[in-house]
């Protein structure tokens, strides 16, 4: 990140103090903007002493891709003026990042839908000619979004204890759904939606495997138990050479809460710990509600699509999404400020 600092009407002692606050400010926004190319990020800081008012004025301007954000703080104490400006700019940045992510998810979903629609005539030709391998090879590269969904569903069920760690490979689940699609292609197309059918089939396969391990005597952990953030249940069995494989996208609070509502805490967990924490909190939500929320917020499915997949009313789906959002908001308020302390306290209580 590039930065430029201007001091106006500041005495030497105040300037020395201001330089310390500026250094912390730069370090903070370097962390918050690390997803951008650092050459495209510029922070301008103006610190001014207002002698007549006996106050300090701090102006922050942050240039990032697709936005120029600004905030100001004014107070009789320099530290408070910096704090006011920093918190305002953090909220503006959080809102911008959420908008970019929402746009990215929407575009990814639209691309998937469009590519599936384009492939249908060619898949139909392959099926009619009994060209199974060509059918599979044509369809597999289009299903990375479904792979993301399958991977996340499997992980949720590992966290609830319904599936043993590394028991089910999402690639194998998607592959089974693809083979099923080939065998039943004519019926699926007659119903009108291959993407919908594949999504639903993947969920069915995972539920079948849960039933299988239950019959084998596997006992799920109680929902109130706390899964440590470094537990083996966060590990998945994955084939990195699979045509579906994509890197796991680690979650942040701003991924699951509305734009501008949350700011990454200064004493943050590692990226992996934070993602595990959010996954764990979502795993505590009843399955149908969790799926509605996650498919909408993280996968970009519309309420109409989710209602169709779950066989429910759209109003009910919308209500569930808002209920889960409210729950996650409450958990963020409890956990985000000092998550490690809350985690340690929870573990002590569980061990008591």
Basic shape: elongated
Gap between N and C termini, in Å? 47 Å
How much of the sequence lies in strands comes to: 5-15%
Strand order of the largest sheet: 1-2-3-4
By helix and strand content, what is the structural category?
Answer: alpha+beta
Order of helices and strands: EHEEEHHHHHHHHHHHH
Number of strands: 4
Helical coverage, percent range? 55-70%
Q: What is the gyration radius calculated from CA atoms? A: 25 Å
* Contiguous helical run count: 13
Unreliable spans are: 345-352
Compute the average pLDDT. Answer: 86
Largest sheet: 4 strands, mixed
- The tally of domains stands at 2
Keywords:
352 residues, alpha+beta, Double Stranded RNA Binding Domain, 2 domains, 4-stranded mixed sheet, elongated, disordered C terminus, WH-like_DNA-bd_sf, RNA_pol_sigma70_r4_t2
Compile the SSE list and pairings.
Elements (H helix, E strand, L loop, with lengths): L1 E7 L3 H21 L9 E9 L4 E10 L2 E9 L2 H51 L3 H8 L4 H16 L10 H14 L1 H7 L2 H22 L37 H4 L14 H13 L3 H11 L5 H8 L3 H22 L3 H13 L1
């Amino acid at each position: 990140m590039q930065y430029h600092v201007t001091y106006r009407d500041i005495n030497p002692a105040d300037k020395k103090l201001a330089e310390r606050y500026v250094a912390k400010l730069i370090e903070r926004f370097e962390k918050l903007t690390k997803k951008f190319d650092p050459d495209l990020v510029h922070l301008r800081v103006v610190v001014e002493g207002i002698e007549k008012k006996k106050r300090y004025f701090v102006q922050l301007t942050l240039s990032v891709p697709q936005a120029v954000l600004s905030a100001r703080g004014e107070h009789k104490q320099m530290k408070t003026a910096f704090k006011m400006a920093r918190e305002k700019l953090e909220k503006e940045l959080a809102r911008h990042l959420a908008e970019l992510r929402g746009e990215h998810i929407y575009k990814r979903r639209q691309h998937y839908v469009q590519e599936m629609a384009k492939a249908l005539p060619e898949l139909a030709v392959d099926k009619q000619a009994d060209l199974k391998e060509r059918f599979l090879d044509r369809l597999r590269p289009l299903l990375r979004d479904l792979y993301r969904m399958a991977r996340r569903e499997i992980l949720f069920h590992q966290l609830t204890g319904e599936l043993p760690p590394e028991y089910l490979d999402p690639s194998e689940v998607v592959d089974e759904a693809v083979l099923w699609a080939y065998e039943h292609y004519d019926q699926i197309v007659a119903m009108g939606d291959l993407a919908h059918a594949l999504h639903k089939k993947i969920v069915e396969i995972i539920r079948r495997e849960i039933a299988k391990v239950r019959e084998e005597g596997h006992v799920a952990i109680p929902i109130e138990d706390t899964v440590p953030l470094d537990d083996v249940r966060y590990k998945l069995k994955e084939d990195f050479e699979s045509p579906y494989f994509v890197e796991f996208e680690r979650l942040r609070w701003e991924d699951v809460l509305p734009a501008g509502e949350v700011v990454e805490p200064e004493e943050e967990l590692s990226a992996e710990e934070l993602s595990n924490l959010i996954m764990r909190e979502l795993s505590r939500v009843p399955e149908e509600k969790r799926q509605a929320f996650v498919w909408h917020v993280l996968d970009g499915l519309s309420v109409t699509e989710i209602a169709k997949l779950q066989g429910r009313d759209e109003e009910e789906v919308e209500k569930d999404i808002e209920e889960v959002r409210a729950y996650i908001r409450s958990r963020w308020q409890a956990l985000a400020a000092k998550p490690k302390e809350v985690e340690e306290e929870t573990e002590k209580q569980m061990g008591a």
